[in-house]
Amino acid sequence: MSMKNSTVRAVNRLTGRWAEAAVAPDGRTGTVLTGAGVWPLLALLADGAGGPARDELAGALGIPADRASAAARELLTALGRVPGLEAAAGLWSRADLPLHTDWASRLPEGSRGRLTGDRAADRKLLDDWTASRTGGLIERMPVQVTERTRLVLASALALRLRWIRPFREWPGVLQEGPWADRQVLRLGRTTSLLHRVRVAGTPAGPVTVFEVVGDGGVDVHLVLGDPDAGAGQVLAGGIAAVTRAVPSVDGFSLPEGTPGPGLWIGRGAAYRPEPRLSVQTVAFAVEAEHDLLLHAGLFGLETATTRDPSGHFPGVSSDPLLIESGSQSAMARFHAKGFEAAAVTAFGAVGAGVLPRPPYRVRTIDLRFDRPFGFVAVQRSSRLVLAAGWVAEPLAYVPEERDEDEDEDWEDED
Fold it and tell me: How far is residue 56 from each of residues 301, 304, 381, measured CA to CA in Å?
């Protein structure tokens, strides 16, 4: 994927600020968000905005407004080229809304449609587009549709990836922490690649990050902070670490002992001479609905949502417009074989056996994600964050129905 580093940094900064603001400090509520879905829409709005609204949007974007539409097109085009990732943008407007040709011509390629003013018909049109562009992962566009709605601008991202090496999966009961005594779906893996785990110093304290490599050039990083650290700050610190905005130290260089949350490093007996990193985590699924106007200042939308006879988007239309609604629906699932995530963002304008003794002593790392943690999906070459979120609850293990004479065989970790 090719795009300007300045655009990637701008999107990641917005994602980090949003993650810190959106995740409850106590971490008791799970969430998922996609700044890469919001940023291009803000850029397209900035291109058509005027006055204070234009300045606020440019400030939130982190780039000048006159470069915004080109950056949005570049971003959406590059996202569409990532294997396993579907990206789309759409614009729907009322027939009686005169759109400026210059602004409309700079929009990314994608859907163009008409709003009829019939609430039911317009809702079906937008929801059908949402389900189609996300492969059914999200079925409803998160936008208010009323008789006053004159324009809808939306983006959709849907990511599906498979792990290069699947996890082991088994039902198990956690022994301690906030998830103690629950039977959950546990995931485990062992590797000699100690650089998959890193520890970074962040404003929230040390943060441990574990990289899970996916196909198609997209990886997911699990993020664990100190138990008393604010969840939003931990996730923001994890985003900074995986995007290399802050330095980190990998498992080959970390000192023995407990150098990071969830980590133990020492020397252990082994049957092979290679070092050993043993990781256990849990399967999870999270969904979230975000009202972007609750953080209007963060997104540069404070002025754009106020009433003004002259409107705030003179580059979009000669008719005055304001932003009436802005929302994102997002979901993510992490399991033994892979990861799925999707987000639709929209703005509405109104309008074992017996073995011999192990012959080797090797560097051994144990890493456990057995309490609430964050996750960050990143495009490997650009370091663009595609999705980020917080896991407050693991997936519970639900036994499948089996024949009475069928045995379950859960193998031990290699």
Answer: 7, 9, 31
Q: Which domains does the chain have, with CATH numbers?
A: 5-161+288-350 (3.30.497.10), 162-283+357-391 (2.30.39.10)
Q: Rounded to an integer, what distance in angstroms lies between the CA atom of residue 23 and that of residue 394?
A: 17
- Distance from C-alpha of 117 to C-alpha of 393, rounded to nearest angstrom: 41
DSSP for residue 396: B
User: Per-residue pLDDT tens for 180-190?
Assistant: 998 999 999 99
Q: Are strands 373-379 and 385-391 parallel, antiparallel or unpaired?
A: antiparallel
DSSP element (H, E) containing 341: strand 338-350
Distance, CA of 297 to CA of 295 (rounded, Å) = 6
Please tell me the pTM assigned to this model. 0.92
* Rounded distance between C-alpha atoms, residue 213 and residue 143, angstroms: 34
Selection from 324, 312, 290 nearest residue 150 by Cα: 324
| Token couple for 113 | 């449609």
Cβ count near 257 (within 10 Å): 10
**Rounded distance between C-alpha atoms, residue 364 and residue 256, angstroms:** 9
Calculate the CA 289 to chain-centre distance.
13
